[in-house]
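Notes from hallway chat w/ T.B., transcribed later so I don't forget. T.B. wanted the structure written out for a chain they're using in a teaching module, and asked if we could keep both sequence and structure tokens in one place. Agreed to drop them here.
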Amino acid sequence: MSKDALDDVLEFHWIIDMLQTVDVGIVVLDRQFRVKMWNGFMESHSGMLPSDVRDKTLFSLFPDINPEWFGQKAKPVFELKTRAFMLWEQRPYLFKFSNYRPITGTEEFMYQNIILSPLVSATGKVEHISMMIYDMTDIASGKKQLEALQVLQSEESERGGSPF
């Protein structure tokens, strides 16, 4: 094997290692919404191994996900090669993962932001999309606590008192 070929193999190896260990969920889906890639974040939070989910549909693995709704979100990603976003403020989570900080965290489930991105093949077509799942639980919890304090402060000022 030439030095350039060996360097390419080594580079590919550390790229795959990075995708498996990054603290972001990464899932690759085909047009039938079958799972083609499932990284370590997803394995850790779902309890499902990549070998258990590969080639199964997202909807068979997570029956709570509405196929029609998800299909509408994914359609422009496949057809227009644009990104689509699912924000925790609009929908707290897509994957009902437990909050992995049950002692320090105040939320039962992981709040998530999700980005769907087209994966353009060498032919220029989009046959796969990636999903990146970001844990937004700390931000969501902080925002909810701030809003609760603002409500308390407003109620106290209406009564003429001070909440502090």
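Follow-up for T.B.: The domain at 3-137 is CATH 3.30.450.20 (Beta-Lactamase). Might be a good example for the class.
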